[in-house]
Amino acid sequence: MKTQIISYGYNRENVKSGILHIGVGNFHRAHQEYYTSLLLENEDQQNWGICGAMILPSDERLYKALKGQGGEYTLTVCGRNGEDTAYRLGALNELYWGMEDAEKIINKIADKDIKIITLTITEGGYNIEKATGAFILEDENIIHDLQFKTSPKTAFGYVAEGLRRRMNLGNGPVTILSCDNLQHNGNTAKKAFMSFFCVQDMKLAAWVEKNVTFPNSMVDRITPATRPEDISRLNDKNGVCDEAPVYCEDFIQWVIEDKFIAGRPAWERVGVEFTDDVTAYENMKLSLLNASHTLLSYPSFLSGYRKVDDAMHDERIEKFVRQFMDIDITPYVPAPGNTDLNVYKQTLIERFGNRSVSDQIARLCFDGISKFPVYVMPNLGKMIKDGADFTRVAYLIAAYRNYLKYKVDDNGAAFEVAEPWITAEDLQVISSDNAMDFLGLSAFGSVSLKDSQKFCSLYLKFVEEIKANGAMKTLESIL
User: How far apart are the C-alpha atoms of 304 and 311, rounded to whole Å?
Assistant: First the structure.
């Protein structure tokens, strides 16, 4: 049976662009454009259409597909109950590709009708050095953009030249809003852009300080990559011929600090939450969603699972995740705004188990060195201070050691480890046969794990048991 498509009801000819978005990928199209398309049904909001800017050579296929469809596409929202809903979205009313239309993108940034520049350029796109937190000026594209102002290659170069023209034309202030999934993304965006402006043009940097705001925001919606076979599957299901379909889970959240210097859409009408400070929302997401992803990843992978939904349909793993959320994390997570933490946690369990948006466990295991310091260690530090129950976290760290050191799962299947930020010192402590050395891994640096005897004795016990009996047998013993 074909899915009924819910189409937008507004006349796109009446929509004007008030937002320029850099990085028109799947997440943006399942999240910001979904919210904005719903909002455009209100006649008084039709000056908030989105002008898409795609600036990478690799954007060519998607750009041509969307351009050929006038910016329209279908979004299939996959319900946790197995039922899907498909939408035809029309918020993307202009689209330019930097390889063809760099000048049009720059002039659009300068346009007085553009009040917000939004970004999904990925965490790495902010060009911040992980170890020092400094902007990487030595990047070859940054070097190019600092010198050749009118032929940019990066988001920084485009925005700098667009804002310079905006400043010179007297076209007024603008907000730069990061929609990337990183902590305090507005602060990160400000640091990155201001670092670039200060080196390229101090006059522009001074203007930006007074005329541009960088609100923090928290975004959430699982949106898998659309593979060629997904395009065929979705088009067949929806009875359409869409060259650029997207699919995602049915959960969506967007919390934004209300710091817009030039006005904003009334996104609260369609479910976006505005706040003075996004910190509590970020803490909830990092401590419950992201930490739980890390918690389930290594034990599940070692047990032979490769897909998150398959692992979550194993009642042992589901129970493990629930206990972690309820016993270990909830005492340290104050519920922000109107959030009901019990509902939020139950929703997470359902989201992780959603068969329609199956996620790879290998993706969750990827780059643990970067994830542990942000998702796990802050709360573990508090737990150690309180002398809490370390059972689940000690087991997780023992499983992580086994994963990194032996690279073989419970079934004897060998695997490769992907840890792009691993150091020579890390490799040394991983290879050591003294399990205590592993607690000196760079990822755990913010907490002195070796100082807690209670933690260490549990951890050493689990190291031995996982090696002797496997990850799942050991997990069963702690449930």
Answer: 9
Q: pTM of the prediction?
A: 0.91
131, pLDDT greater than 90: no
Name 164's Cβ contacts closer than 8 Å, sequence gap at least 6.
149, 201, 204
CA angle 220, 11, 78 (to 5 degrees): 30
Residue 21, SS3 per DSSP: strand
pLDDT band with cut points at 50, 70 and 90 for residue 158: very high
Residue 59 zone, left/alpha/beta (φ > 0; ψ -120 to 50; rest): alpha
The letter for the amino acid at 479 is L
Sign of dihedral through CA atoms 50, 55, 60, 64? positive
Nearest-CA neighbor of 108 among 117, 120, 99? 117
Find out whether 260 and 116 touch, Cβ atoms under 8 Å. yes
Report the Cα 14 to chain-centroid distance in Å. 32
Q: Are 222 and 250 in contact (CB under 8 A)?
A: no
Could you tell me if residue 239 is left (phi over 0), alpha (psi between -120 and 50 degrees) or otherwise beta? left
The residues pairing with 7 across neighbouring beta strands, listed in sequence order, are 88
DSSP codes, 268-332: GGGT-EEES--HHHHHHIIIIIIHHHHHHHHHHHHTT--BHHHHHTSHHHHHHHHHIIIIIIGGG
Strand order in the sheet with 253-257: 217-220, 253-257, 273-275
Residue pair 177/217 in contact (Cβ under 8 Å)? The answer is yes
Region 291-314 average pLDDT: 97
Write out the two tokens for 89: 């979205």
Helix axes 155-169, 185-200, angle to 10 degrees: 70
Q: Which two tokens stand for residue 127?
A: 């060009």
Q: Is the pLDDT of residue 164 over 80?
A: yes
The Cα 220–Cα 368 span in angstroms is 20
pLDDT surpassing 80 at residue 350: yes
Read out DSSP for 41-83?
TSGGGTT-EEEEEE-SGGGHHHHHHHHHTTT-EEEEEE-TTS-
What are the CA-CA distances from residue 332 to residues 280, 379, 388, 451 (Å)?
Answer: 11, 7, 12, 21
Distance CA 468, CA 276 (A): 51
